[in-house]
Amino acid sequence: MNPTTPTGGPVGPSRSALRPLSSSEIWIDGGYWAEKQQLNADVILEHCRTWMERIGWIGNFDRAAAGTIAADHAGIEFVDSEVYKLLEAMAWELGRQPSETLEATYLSLVERVSAAQEPDGYLHTSFGRAAQPPRYSDLEWGHELYCFGHLIQAAVARLRTGHDDLLPAVARRLADHLYDAFGPDGRPAVCGHPEVEMALVELGRATGEERYLELARLFVERRGHRTLQQIDFGREYFQDTVPVRDATTLSGHAVRALYLAAGAADVAVETGDAALLDAVRRQAAAARAARTYITGAVGSHRRDESFGQDFELPPDRAYAETCAGIASAMLDWRLLLSTGSGGHAAAMERVLLNNVLTSPREDGRAFFYANTLHQRVPGTEAGDDELAGHRAEGGGMRSPWFDVSCCPTNVARTLASVHLYFATASERGVQLHQYGDYQVRTEVAGGTVHLRVTSGYPYDGTVHVEVVEAPDRAIALAVRVPEWAAGAAELSGGEPTTLADGYLVLDRVLTPGEKISVAFPIEARVVHPDPRIDAVRGAFAVERGPLVLALESLDLPAGWDLNAVTADPASVRTTSDGAAITVEQHTPAEADWPYRAETPSPATARAEATLIPYQRWANRGPAAMRVWIPKD
Amino acid sequence: MNPTTPTGGPVGPSRSALRPLSSSEIWIDGGYWAEKQQLNADVILEHCRTWMERIGWIGNFDRAAAGTIAADHAGIEFVDSEVYKLLEAMAWELGRQPSETLEATYLSLVERVSAAQEPDGYLHTSFGRAAQPPRYSDLEWGHELYCFGHLIQAAVARLRTGHDDLLPAVARRLADHLYDAFGPDGRPAVCGHPEVEMALVELGRATGEERYLELARLFVERRGHRTLQQIDFGREYFQDTVPVRDATTLSGHAVRALYLAAGAADVAVETGDAALLDAVRRQAAAARAARTYITGAVGSHRRDESFGQDFELPPDRAYAETCAGIASAMLDWRLLLSTGSGGHAAAMERVLLNNVLTSPREDGRAFFYANTLHQRVPGTEAGDDELAGHRAEGGGMRSPWFDVSCCPTNVARTLASVHLYFATASERGVQLHQYGDYQVRTEVAGGTVHLRVTSGYPYDGTVHVEVVEAPDRAIALAVRVPEWAAGAAELSGGEPTTLADGYLVLDRVLTPGEKISVAFPIEARVVHPDPRIDAVRGAFAVERGPLVLALESLDLPAGWDLNAVTADPASVRTTSDGAAITVEQHTPAEADWPYRAETPSPATARAEATLIPYQRWANRGPAAMRVWIPKD
After folding, report:
1. How far apart are CA A380 and CA A393, in angstroms?
2. The domain defined by A19-421 carries CATH number 1.50.10.10
């Protein structure tokens, strides 16, 4: 449970306000998050691997090595990236918890990938061989550099978990090739899907090779100058209309926008480019203020998977892609490390608990790609062997796999590394950003600090911090106070404290064996939308602690129509294990036309209903569901 | 203005409750609609023709005839249909108002089309020649039969306007080929885009060839049995999951669904299949009750241009395609003729005035493809030479032409034939369905009836009917009463009357020279949405007579943000030329997160604003606009 080899986490800045920890310094040892990580280790990783074996995505590498790939490539042109995200997930998992079986599976998969690498370092199963499109002939849609980025991130995960072996070698050769092809003396172009930017910065950090950072910087600077061809969705789709440092908000394809912003933040941090970092921070803040769902999810346009305009946040048409939620957490992690501001940790908590963790079914064998906030008609349970179209409408139930299956592998790599987001350290202290059951053991000025954190989070708000080991000098222990607990958090055993940037800070000598606890009042809270969000006008949501709640049709009396339910926000109440609400059923007049001079009819029935955590909806079978509940 | 050769209109059923009139029996002679028809004749037809010459869509036929098309085809694979819709528009226009210039242009265009027909009757510029995909190799997306349908409809328009010349001959050869290819002894398949069904029934009606009806019947019966391949959007997209006679509502791609329903109605009428006709009527009624925008527009999913689920009608994400509105009017015309029920005429009025006529810019040189009901951010005026992507987001201004340009030519053929929808006849009488300035001169039992209708419609509600000529026996004059005037319509000079199926019926001898008038109270009316339409909860719309009104940002005080405006519905008032409202401006709290415990702040300013007809929005330059106004 406490391996010693790992050297870092998903982001390793050479300078930052907060220092990220490695799996040797932080580990989850029980409770809610341990269950999620174990589900990932036991089920999700293998689910992803077997699906990709079965439908030939892994076999693509074998056929590429054998020279037969042109005639027989499985899947769309960026399926390589799914294999790489799985490799990244496996690497983090192995860093968290060694396993001989998984190590063998991992190494075998890396061997197969490696065999497809060409002598000059290029590695992609869809381009460049005879009877395939030439390399870099379709930068708009080819996703070549996007795939490379994922390979490089997988290699960085391997390096940061203490192994400089085959995949890092493959990644170095690939990155060297990329530098030749697109570096200062190469083609001045960018990829249609940002991703390689952050990967290159990270590989540069992990290897010390400065050319990788230089190449990432070039990619960031080149974007926004319309070097990509026009496409149906317009160049805003891949952020090629405005240079990153001039953009005022996040727009276009949501995952592309967020990966780009994360890469730009990495470049800014490493090059000391304060203006660029500030531009990214402003964009993230603007998108958060007007382009984010209450679940932390982003992307309101299904057609082009893009951010909508400000306040265009329809719950029923929400795309709210799982990968965009993950990308959003990746960006906030970078901004948290660089600024130390608790708002970024709060945003991560919201999106991880309410968007990313909504994706996997409770058994880990099916996933949401899009995460609607309002399902009018119950969906249909997919067969275990059914490959879903990610563009199909309807949905309402999770699917085992998709023709474009970016989300399951993205969930896998996130869960395998999620503990690394829970706390950080600095010269003088430790910062606790997320809650659960975990331990932190790291070095600060004066010596080793070892803390054991326990809590019933996200269902219960009391967090206990037991000091296992501490230096005999004062250290600053920062405990994040969620915005909904501001002013109400009670710290026991820890006065005096100060509140700074979203954290209670206890600055004194800690004594081994002492217990500090902080209680956040976890009660059901009614939340109202900004009146400019037209799509949820006249409705309210309910949150309890860090969880967004939802009303699922299964919790209504038999025969009720969720589409004709209203409620009085004053009826919301906290229960021992959640929240309840008094719902009212209306019987809309049967009419041949849905617009009329009369206002709606009053309620005809009243009942009590349980509200469930949104992340758990559609786990009891097909159901209608809504996060936003109409007021009477 | 009163040609005598035409023999029919867009639909010519061999049996029906109401008999459609031809251009020799009904013509518009002034006012609002005359201006629209003249704009079409003077500007829109030529606009469409010159665009299609310029970008090579017409030239495709020349290159097909010359054998060079495979190497040089302009546009997507269904651009042939745009040329055919233009030919149909020209034919109706020539039937309405002869013009030597237009006749010459028309004949020259038909020659070029005709030259591309192959010896066996097949005619398509994208398929079947060397180096092109084989004929019927892509029924899902190839649109071959869809294009044929439009050619046939153009030929029917020529036949019904009194000319059995080259295009009808081309159409017969094409239909004969189709019968061989897909008839009882041919391939049991359907086209991915319904359209040919209604065209074949009509060609059968116009030529007396029963095989065409038989083929149409086969196409209708075959659909819904999953003969088409699975596609990304799912088979519901092209109505291939449920047989037409089993469907309970309209779903999937809106234009496809409506064209299919119209074709099925035609088949049902000609074959006396009451069950099929009833199925189509029920589907249309279900879609009208739960899947139609207040403008009469349909289609709430932009991604696949489809109907949404019941009550899923977001105003901002409305697709509300112009062509779907036209298709909806085509279906309601068929149902009106077969049932005589005024609800179908009311639906036609609503969609023509508020959806279809919103498409063309007032100068006739730019068009909306999608018709949003809520524009948050003012659009950008397109250049006169700018080809727009029909899939591009944003919009907010009309475009001169599109990569997929179905809407402008569809508007053109609709305007050229729109007078034919205004009235019908029956054995004993005449029915006035739509209002404007027009004359009807037709035969009923007992002799000729000639009526001159005048009104200031749609702005003024008084309709005058002058009897020019009438038989000396009693006839039944039916005058449609809009639903908003029910109970308030005043008829002068005409008692006693009865009200039946949406019509006031005056049943007596009419005297030449007598004047009958009916007054509908045209006042601004507040309309509330069904509470199940989540996207407009807490908002209201305003209608005045048959027009849906809108609030455009240009009518707000300088500096106001339309996105932060509310109003009290009680402040809506009728003005001499429209309607006005008292709007209230809110100053939303600047916040880093758009969901909070507090309810919105009260208004900080108040002002008067004019409401404009929705159909006229975005004619004064870029603007934000909303049909649904939030209540305070």
Report:
1. 12
2. yes
Band of pLDDT at residue A576, cut at 50, 70 and 90: confident
Phi and psi (nearest 5°) for A566? -130, 175
Please report residues of A whose CB lies closer than 8 A to that of B528: 595-600
Q: How far is B567 from chain A, CA to nearest CA, in Å?
A: 13
Q: Do B534 and A535 touch (CB under 8 A)?
A: yes
Provide the mean pLDDT of chain A. Answer: 94
Q: Is B383 helix (H, G, I), strand (E, B) or coil?
A: coil
Q: How far apart are CA A285 and CA A73, in angstroms?
A: 42
* Dihedral pair phi/psi, residue A556, rounded to 5°: -95, 160
Chain A residue whose CA is closest to B288: A593
Percent of chain A with pLDDT over 90: 88
Q: How confident is the model over A491-508, as a mean pLDDT?
A: 79
pLDDT of B499 strictly over 60: yes
> What local confidence, expressed as pLDDT, does residue B6 receive?
81
Query: Any idea which fold B423-519 has?
Result: Maltose phosphorylase, domain 3 (2.60.420)
Cβ separation B533–A594 shorter than 8 A: yes
Which residue does chain B place closest to A392, by CA atoms? B233
Task: Say if residues B216 and B198 touch (Cβ distance below 8 Å).
Answer: yes
Query: What SS3 state is found at B286?
Result: helix
Q: Is the pLDDT of residue B26 over 80?
A: yes
Which residue in B236, B392, B592 is closest to A285 by CB distance?
A: B592
Task: Dump pLDDT digits (tens) for A108-149.
Answer: 999 999 999 999 999 999 999 999 999 999 999 999 999 999
Question: Across the interface, do B594 and A525 touch by the CB < 8 Å criterion?
Answer: no
Domain ranges of chain A: 19-421, 423-519, 527-630
Is B537's CB within 8 Å of A539's CB?
yes
Q: Is residue A3 scored above 60 in pLDDT? A: no
Instruction: Please work out, in degrees rounded to the nearest 5, the angle formed at the alpha carbon of residue A76 by the alpha carbons of A74 and A77.
Output: 105
* Any A CB within 8 A of B632 CB: no
Across-strand partners of B551? B626
The answer to whether B559 contacts chain A (CB < 8 Å) is no
Chain A: nearest CA to B295, how far in angstroms? 11
Residues of chain A by 3-state class (helix, strand, coil), percent to 5: 40, 20, 45
Q: pLDDT by residue (tens digit) across A317-333?
A: 899 999 999 999 999 99
Q: What is the ipTM of this complex?
A: 0.92
CB-CB neighbors (< 8 A) of B391 in chain A: 232-233, 303
What pLDDT, in 10s, does the model give residues A336-346? Answer: 999 999 999 99
- Interface check A205 vs B, CB under 8 A: no
- Does B19-373+396-421 carry CATH code 2.40.30? no
